[in-house]
Amino acid sequence: MVSSPADGITGGPAGPPTNVADLLRGVAADHPGRPAIIATSGSKTWGELDAAVDAGVADLRGYGIAAGERVVIALPTGADLALALFAAARAGLIAVPIGPSRGDVGTFADRVGAIAAISDQHDHGLPFGVDSARLAKWWSATPPPADSAGSGRPAAIGGGEDLAILARVRGDRAVMLSHRAILAAVAAITELGKLRMRDHDRVLQVLPMYHLAGWVVAFLPITLFGGASVVPDVGFDSASVGAPPAEAPNPGSRARSITGVHGGSAQGGDAAAAGRRATESALAAAHDHRVTLIPGAPGFYHHLATIKGAERSLSSVRLLTSGTAPLEPDDFAVVRALLGQPVWEGYGLSESASVVTSTLNTPKPHRGSVGRPLPGLELRVIGPDGQDVSAMAGPVRAGDVTDEDTFDLAEVPDAGEVGRIAIRGATLFSGYWPDGGGGPGPDGWYITGDIGYLDDAGELHLVDRAAEVIKVAGFTVYPREVEEVLATHPYVAEVAVIGLRDPRGQEQVVAVLVARAGKHPTPGDLTDFVSELLPPFKRPVEFHLVEGLPRTEVGRLDRASVQRQFLPESEQRRLTAVGADSADAESAPGDDTGGNEPAESAPDIAPEQVGELAELGVRLPGAGVNRAARGNQDTDEDLF
Q: Which residue of 57, 250, 263, 631 pairs with 245 in a disulfide if CB–CB is 3.0 to 4.6 A?
């Protein structure tokens, strides 16, 4: 088990904040004239934001909306979104941020029983709505005198265990986050020693603010120091990271062939160009406003390395972090060489208010590690019996790390046994909407749907998601492992590996690829390539060439969407979860000639039997709680 202590957010005379909007009240009292949000469309100070929130609360109360009601917020990253989120918190409402309107406000309102919306969409069918014109009236409120320190201002309604946000509502299970969880996450972030947030820090808002990573990780911590959020003109949202192709082929024959997918050129095919435009916009904003901190995502760093003059644009930046998905080793190396500093990676999930571990809790980052738990969080990797699989004895605290524990990037630490990642701490959610089911157990531990291991320095390494593991002939195949191999092919730009069943009902490894510009990889070339690097049971039996791969709003590869594109409608299903019955051993995928070949033919890569992982998440600590269903759930769409 790995853990780290936390002291919490230091409060003022009235004590620590209990409502997320208390953070705004505090910074507005201390630094009313400092910029809070800087954008081409205009900057807003902390005093202006605080006064606008008060006006918004009065307006919402005028509607007669009671505390605890849900309000869907469909706005892009920017000052209006920050205003709406803080207003909902101060009014005691539960914010349901879904990002820019796509004409689906009513759909998500129905899902969570919302009666109000703050959106640029007028026809949402809800009893109450706040549009852009009404938001402008909130902004026109006159800030109080600079020395008022909040005196006589309306107090926030609720806090603590009251719900503040329903996150990931676009997914299949909305995550219930309390004010307590969000404030604990902010405290943990600001206690990271290497972060050392300072007065006048300026944070580049690369991560979308309507996502927990952008709101909790990137924006809220600056309220404790009077910093500012710099919003680029072109944002990184779902429109810029790609979308699924419009149509997909029926898998049909299992022959080894590359199938071109039509459609998607308007979005998926232009994803790289759109991502580059967003990165160029972010670099311009960083240069113009002297950004000092960048909580980013792998896509940003990938494009950054290809843009001329990036190092000059980021000359004022003192710290780079990355989340939402694994950072490619090549991109890590290029950025470090270009900027003279590393990118510090982390891991988080919605169920933990977007924070779990960070390499900022280690002396220096090394390949594959996502670091140690943030202050106040405990982490375990557990096996079928619910016991720690790591050989480490007792808890290891982040503060106990010494220089002797460091690794060079070229070194590969010893891998501990793979198991399910479990976490405990004040940042954890209150369960899934609407009844709180599937939350932390009586012992406080939450068993995630992620698989990983601890190295010999106590740092976490991510392996894959339990729900996306592929089982072939009784062996476990982790999609990320195969993706990392194919990504090294000189003709491959992007790749997603999924599991599909053949006509006999047995799962096969299938690769869906995006080719590099001007290149066209052939089935034979790809088959020869993987045959030298992977054992037979891990080699894809089919390759599909597409114009773009779908990604989430924070740029993470959406394998579930990829798989749906290649399944007949009658067979739509989620990826096989760990714990299902294994396939027949004699049906292992063969070599290039199609013949069966035993896994022992690749002794250099020891296969993992499905049986070793089959019961993970079933027999776990704590009694009286059905952990099996929780263990099979796919948990996060934030930082992994």
A: 263
Distance from the first to the final alpha carbon of the chain: 20
Copy the structure tokens of residue 186. 């902010």
Kind plus residue range of the DSSP H or E element containing 454: strand 446-454
Distance of CA 72 to the CA centre of its chain: 21
- Residue reference for tokens 């409502």: 19
Q: pLDDT digit string (tens) for 348-371? A: 999 999 999 999 989 888 878 999
CA angle 151, 153, 158 (to 5 degrees): 120
DSSP string, 204-219: E--S-TTSHIIIIIII
In this chain, the answer to whether the domains covering 19-158 and 470-576+579-612 adopt an identical fold is no
Sequence-separated (6 or more) residues with CB below 8 Å from residue 216? 182, 185, 186, 189, 353, 354, 355
**Backbone Cα Rg of the chain:** 24
The DSSP call for residue 373 is: E
Average pLDDT value for residue range 457-482: 86
Do residues 571 and 510 make contact, with C-beta atoms less than 8 angstroms apart? no
Q: Confidence band (pLDDT; 50, 70, 90) for 193? A: confident
Strand, helix or coil for residue 523: helix
Question: What letters, b where the CB count within 10 A reaches 16 and e where it falls short, cover 526-561?
Answer: bbebbeeebbbbbbbbbbbbbbbbbbbbbbbbbbbb
Sign of the Cα torsion 157, 160, 164, 166 reads negative
What architecture does CATH give domain 19-158? 3-Layer(aba) Sandwich (3.40)
Q: Residue 193 has which token pair?
A: 């020693």
Q: What's domain 470-576+579-612's superfamily in CATH?
A: ANL, C-terminal domain (3.30.300.30)
Beta strand extents in 57-158 (DSSP E only):
70-74, 94-97, 116-119, 128-130
CA atoms of 523 and 545, how far apart (whole Å): 10
Cα–Cα distance, 366 to 411 (Å, whole number) = 8
- Per the CB < 8 A criterion, the answer to whether 212 and 295 are in contact is no
Closest-CA residue to 359 (of 386, 334, 341): 341
- Four-CA torsion 272, 277, 282, 284, nearest 10 degrees: 140
Cα separation, 201 vs 204, whole angstroms: 10
Is the peptide bond prior to 434 cis by the omega test (within 30 degrees of 0)?
A: yes
pLDDT at 322 over 50: yes
Identify which of 611, 604, 635, 612 has the alpha carbon closest to the alpha carbon of residue 533: 604
199 and 225 Cβ atoms separated by less than 8 Å: yes
Residue 576 CA to chain centroid, in angstroms? 22
**Domain residue limits, the chain:** 19-158, 470-576+579-612
d(CA 98, CA 95): 10
Mean pLDDT of 75-102: 94
The whole-angstrom distance between residue 619's C-alpha and the CA centroid of its chain comes to 27
Beta pairing class for 492-501 and 507-515: antiparallel
Beta-strand pair 293-296/319-322: parallel
Q: What are the helix (H) ranges across 406-509?
A: 479-486
Show the tokens assigned to 66: 């009671």
Question: CA 16 to CA 568: how far, in whole Å?
Answer: 54
Question: How does DSSP classify residue 596?
Answer: -
Global pTM value: 0.78
Per-residue buried b or exposed e for 478-491, using 16+ beta carbons within 10 Å of the residue's own CB: bbbebbbbbbebeb
